[in-house]
Amino acid sequence: MRGKIALVTGASSGIGAATARALATAGVKVAAGARRVDRLKELGGEVLALELDVTDRQSARDAVAAAVEHFGGLDIVVNNAGVMDSGPVAGADTAGWERMVATNLLGTLYVTHAVLPYLLARKGTIVQISSTAGRFAYAMGGVYGATKFGVNAFTESLRQEVTTQGVRVVSIEPGMVDTEIIAQVGDPGLRDMVQQRYRSMRTLRPEDVAAAVLYAVGQPEHVSVNEILLRPTGQVQ
After folding, report:
1. Which residue of 18, 65, 95, 171 shows the fewest CB atoms closer than 10 Å?
2. Active-site residue list
């Protein structure tokens, strides 16, 4: 993969930061995008830091254009930016729903739309970071799950559209990963319950998911890893 060019969204922490580091270590030229652009400097190396709000179509276009202008193209895109504000439907603050839909679903669509011409030109690979919540619905995770089910449906549809043109489309569905996303759960009781569940097992690390990304994008061009379901050994559902 040495010399390839990648864009990673949501790269200021967690899976995105780990993926940006792993790609850079593998010799990939990396553009890292996030709203918290100051934290991107912590990635080190020759990573191009880009201010990117995936919920804003123009911000997505501008970040992609900046990456292409700086590096000359794109070979790999990892759509990782995401938020989770789970809770019961009854009495929910629907502003949290809108934030999840805007970030997890529309953000993935906006970035994909902006990068696709460049990936088609270079027969690149796009990786969508989904979730086990995109396969299995669970109580108090309805809207978050809806966004991830949507990402999975969009990803498979896109794959069917572009696979014969040489573009590989990958969905990675991690289970419980130790990242900042748990702190975003708005319902205090649910947040405590989730944190206790996380403490009860050896969860995935962001680096574990990054390794799955590298495995998928590092295959020969004729090999397409379309889907990876990744869970901690102790996670049942």
Report:
1. 95
2. 144
